[in-house]
Amino acid sequence: MLDILRLKKNTAGIRQKVREVVPDGNLSACLTCGACASGCPATGLMDMDPRKFLRMAVLGLDEELERHPWVWACTMCKRCYDVCPMHLNIPQLVYYLRSQWPRSERPKGILGSCDHHIKSRGGAMGVPFEDFKFTVEDLAEECRQQEGFEDLKADIDREGAFFALNQNSREPVTEPDELLPLWKILHTAGADWTYYSDMWGGENYCMFLADDTSWETIVRAQAAHIDKLGCKVFLNTECGHSFFAVWSGLQRFKIPHKFEFKASLNTMPNGSGRENFPSIPTGIPRASNSRFRTPAILSENPWEIPWPRT
Q1: What CATH code is carried by the domain that includes residue 33?
Q2: Most CB within 10 Å of its CB: which of 62, 77, 176, 231?
Q3: Distance CA 38, CA 196 (A)
Q4: pLDDT greater than 80 at residue 164
Q5: Do 128 and 236 reside in the same domain of the chain?
């Protein structure tokens, strides 16, 4: 059945604004092919999909779009952008509309996480740095009681370390033992790393909130602190949104920095007898053997992790 759009008033304000602020935002170039809707995980939610949303913007249905809650169902995964034959930046249309909502009316969960991050200068959980520091030190001391890890280090703000790592702020609070596998791998690989203290949380819900000011505050503080420590590489240990928040934020807000930013904890494909597990960061010197086994490190079933080539 055809979905009939009834035009009340054609203002085209949103369409024009997006074209002004987004280089690839000429929404009128849409072919209505539907490729965007076919791969969108939010298609069908609230009786909306990317093609319909874009067509409404083109037709000037600004009033219907300005407070449409579907913008918060969008995951900002950019699949629609990747498959669009005209390369129209639909996610930026969604982002723009999010930014037009009064801040107090935006989703409470995302809003609260963003505010916790800014207030605590840690992460979205609002964990004070002192608590994070205590957890790291206590867990590292416990780990050093295990054979083979007597010299394990989990430093915070160590100047001159090669890698600066972020950390999901939920794990130190709810699943502290989840920090250990990565520490053990880095220790075994001989990596020179440290956590940083200012805005140490890897997540960035302020980006999802379309709060540019807070998004910039987080990334700018991270960049300044890591440069102050003299680290060569900022190593993202969080998921894709965390990587994008930093990578895009550095460019979007023209933030100066001296480090190289890497997302080097990629997930291995599933295989027989294997589990998804982060690979060793690139840039770590090779061992004499190009492969090494993890059971002695992680007490897991035997399988091998490829050692990265430098």
Answers
A1: 1.10.1060.10
A2: 231
A3: 41
A4: yes
A5: yes
Look-up of token digits 């291995």: 268
Which pLDDT belongs to residue 254?
97
**Cβ atoms of 192 and 164 closer than 8 Å:** no
How many separate helices (H) and strands (E) can be counted in the chain? 14, 6
Q: Is residue 108 part of a domain?
A: no
Please state the pTM of the whole predicted model. 0.80
Confidence of residue 7 (pLDDT cuts 50, 70, 90): low
Q: What value does the mean pLDDT of the chain take?
A: 82
Give the separation between CA 18 and CA 291, rounded to whole angstroms: 50
DSSP state of 18: H
Q: Is 277 exposed, middle or buried (0-12, 13-18, 19+ CB in 10 A)?
A: middle
- Mean pLDDT for the stretch of residues 288-294: 36
| 87 and 117 assigned to the same domain | no
Give the CA angle between residues 83, 86, 90 to the nearest 5°. Answer: 65
CA dist., res. 309 & res. 1, Å (int) = 56
Q: Which 3 state secondary structure label does DSSP give 298? A: helix
Instruction: Output the pLDDT for position 57.
Output: 87
Structural domain including 237 reads: 113-306
